[in-house]
Design goal:
disordered N terminus, mainly alpha, Arc Repressor Mutant, subunit A, Tetracycline Repressor, domain 2, 0% strand, 240 residues
Length: 240
Amino acid sequence: MSSSGAAPGRGDEAGKPAMRDALVAAAFRLFLERGFERTTVDDIVALAGVGRRSFFRYFPSKEDVVFPDHERCLADMTAFLAAAPSDADPVRRVCDAARLVMLMYAENPAFSVQRYRLTRQVPGLRQYELSVVWRYERALAGYLRVRFAGLPDGILRADVIAAAVVAAHNNALRSWLRSDGKGDAEAAVDHALGHVRESFGAGPEPAVTRGPEDVVVIVSRRGAPLWRVVQELESALGRA
């Protein structure tokens, strides 16, 4: 596998040496050749030419090497939310925070597409990925809960908006990944997040050219569980 299959290079930043990228590149080469389950940590370090201790210095497990950039992205998202001005539109702020994830994927489309294909093939990786997505959602919801503190149904509103942001973002991102990283991922995610801002945002939005199908109306039964509301939103965005 060529070096383009490695995670986005961070070799000179924050003490992340090239060894980390070499481990990711070696791991993905073996995953593609042998499969994830048949590849061991010993196989990875042997191909990378380093010891086991070096692997575990950067990755707690074999699963973590598949998602080498999510911890950084989660930290960036958390810092971005924490730095929000007190008068910032909270819905726009969480939408902008979600865009950081999209930008991470778009840094290296080849690697992102390879990872997407791998997670579709390995159920354990799919579950790991869902746990990562949940952490992003909790970060968004945590910020919104603080902003909506004291409002009627403030916690409910925060959780619904956070789930909607994740659903809209993932719908667009996965469509881009299924297309092998072709097209404009940023525009696709912005379009999807626009539905969230229109539904929940409080302030005026910049003018955006939209087609007649760009308005999505969702009717849900009172008392429907949150997962059902999010499912309906994802389904509606998929048809839009």
